[in-house]
Automatic annotation (TrEMBL):
Residues 1-25 form the signal peptide. Belongs to the bacterial solute-binding protein 5 family. The keyword Lyase does not apply. One of its GO terms (molecular function) is peptide transmembrane transporter activity. This is ABC transporter substrate-binding protein. InterPro entries: Peptide/Ni-bd, SBP_5, SBP_5_CS, SBP_5_dom. Keywords: Signal. Pfam families: SBP_bac_5. Residues 73-418 form the Solute-binding protein family domain. It is found in: Periplasm. GO terms for biological process: peptide transport. One of its GO terms (cellular component) is outer membrane-bounded periplasmic space.
Length: 508
């Protein structure tokens, strides 16, 4: 059965349509107003993780390198060049004209301090897990040069430098010997194209173009970010001209409002994928159904991924059969696929000793329609699903306690088109996301990060992904499509990695 949704226009839309003329956004004050549902509480991306914070950091901060979302090539940013002295020693040369928002000039000492702070045990930075895997220390070697000493061979150093570490002034987090991890949380001093003009946590952030930015100046002078948790409120604000941009828009709403003169619907690719993780290791039940490979294969056959992608996500969403995004390096598409086949699923369940199915507790935290579709498909082959739709925090806590037999997860890989960005976090043995219990698989995944030979890395990932597919540790679902509603007066380019870059917006 196809999983279809019905287009229903929110009451705010109906009211505006019936009783008001379209109120187009006014670009006269050169201010773009955007809406975000998630509360913005901390402006320092070195201490946050959510996509909303990534979007903001790209405006307020800069990194050593930029990753071109179209070519996946690393380009100079604060760094002008690099050279590997050997496999574990990297020299970086810096620009001499990079200014912080307070007017001070960035130095090699600032760069070394930032990286050394991140890996300090008392920093407790959200980035420390990423950088701490490979960085031993950063050393100032000249007025505009820094040497990075690596713990081991690591092929993703430039990626991490381009995407994870926001540069800070020396002493930012421990001035006078006192540790202050919130030093940049509200009064951020960055080096990006926009500086913070005002910030009311959980309510509004006002960014103003930084005239001394070393790179290309953004087209729009001011960006106001408003926290509007309700999608209906965002919709009404867009129609009245209160905001010019909203994202994570449900497909039906995006198509409905985008068909009017009040807004433009933009849809583009996204590196985020959805999947069902299965407790193959038996953490919740040592002899349970999910420990049997035929049961896990049956679950894969039971899911109508194509209809979920088409009718619940839409746009460029596509079904997948790998534990990665097809656009990512190393994401081998020749691994075992399990086509939608309910009868094959029932047969496998019978062979596994469950001709009448079994009870399954399935957790989910987003895209309720998808969770319900997965539940319906599994129920259709005899698996009696108890759907637990919870907040992400609750799911994370239960997963950390190994109390989840199966859950629907998503992963955006931080916009990185490399299988490494999804493999380690889900299949190494030091993550609670790994429910496979497969040590050999974990070793293989880590091995792909211990060589700079791209052909060798591709072979390793191909082998690891084959194991995941053959053992059906996951039930991959689909890629996402990014849906936006924007003012008809706004030009907002979409990038292939699905990451919104507000700094690239302009007025028509």
């Amino acid at each position: 059965m196809k999983h279809m949704t019905t287009r229903v226009l929110a009451p705010a839309f109906l009211a505006a349509t019936l009783f008001a003329a379209p109120a187009m956004a006014d670009k006269a004050d050169d201010t773009m107003r955007v809406a975000m549902a998630e509360e913005i509480l901390n402006l320092d991306y070195n201490y946050t993780t959510k996509r909303e914070y990534i979007i903001l950091a790209q405006m307020t901060d800069t990194t050593l390198f930029d990753l071109d979302p179209r070519t996946q090539e690393y380009k100079p940013a604060v760094a002008t060049g690099y050279a590997f002295v050997d496999d574990k020693t990297l020299d970086i040369t810096l620009r001499d004209d990079v200014k912080f928002h307070d007017g001070s000039v960035l130095s090699a000492e600032d760069v070394a301090y930032t990286y050394n702070w991140i890996i300090r045990e008392d920093s407790e930075s959200n980035a420390s897990g990423t950088i701490g895997r490979w960085l031993d220390n950063a050393e100032v070697t000249g007025p505009n040069t820094v040497r990075f000493h690596l713990k081991s061979v690591y092929p993703l150093v430039l990626r991490d430098m381009a995407q994870r570490i926001m540069l800070r002034k020396a002493g930012t987090y421990d001035e006078g010997g006192t540790v202050d991890r919130d030093a940049m949380a509200q009064e951020l001093i960055g080096t990006g194209p926009y500086k913070v003009k005002s910030f009311e946590p959980g309510q509004e952030l006002v960014l103003e173009r930084f005239d001394d930015y070393f790179g290309e100046a953004p087209a729009i002078q001011t960006i106001v970010v408003r926290n509007l948790p309700d999608i209906g409120t965002q919709q009404a604000e867009l129609m009245s001209g209160g905001i010019d941009w909203m994202f994570k828009v449900p497909l039906d709403l995006a198509e409905s409002l985008g068909a009017t003169p009040m807004a433009s619907h933009l849809s583009g690719p996204d590196l985020r994928v959805a999947f069902v993780v299965l407790d193959a290791a038996g953490y919740t039940d040592a002899d349970g159904p999910l420990t049997k490979v035929k049961v896990r294969q049956a679950i894969n056959h039971a899911l109508n991924k194509a209809d979920m992608a088409k009718f619940l996500i839409g746009g460029s969403a596509e079904p997948i059969h790998t534990a990665c995004h097809p656009a990512q390096f190393g994401c081998d598409q020749s691994v075992q696929d399990y086509p939608y086949d309910p009868e094959a699923a029932k047969a496998l369940l019978a062979e596994a000793g469950y001709p009448d199915g079994f009870e399954l507790e399935l957790w989910a935290y987003r895209d309720k329609a998808v969770a319900e579709a997965v539940s319906a498909d599994l129920s259709a082959v005899g698996i009696k699903v108890n759907l637990r739709y919870v907040k992400l925090e609750s799911l994370n806590q239960a997963r950390a306690s190994q109390d989840i037999p199966a859950y629907i997860g998503t992963w955006g890989s931080g916009g990185t088109a490399d299988t490494a960005a999804i493999a380690r976090i889900h299949f190494s043995m030091d993550t609670d996301r790994n429910l496979s219990g497969d040590q050999a698989l974990a070793d293989e995944v880590l091995a792909a990060e211990q060589t700079n030979d791209q052909d060798e890395r591709a072979e390793i990932y191909s082998s690891a992904l084959s194991t995941i597919a053959d053992q059906a540790y996951w039930a991959p679902l689909f890629t996402y499509s990014a849906n936006y509603l924007v003012s008809p007066e706004l030009e907002f380019p979409l990038d292939p990695d699905g990451l919104p870059r507000l700094q690239n917006a302009s007025w028509k």
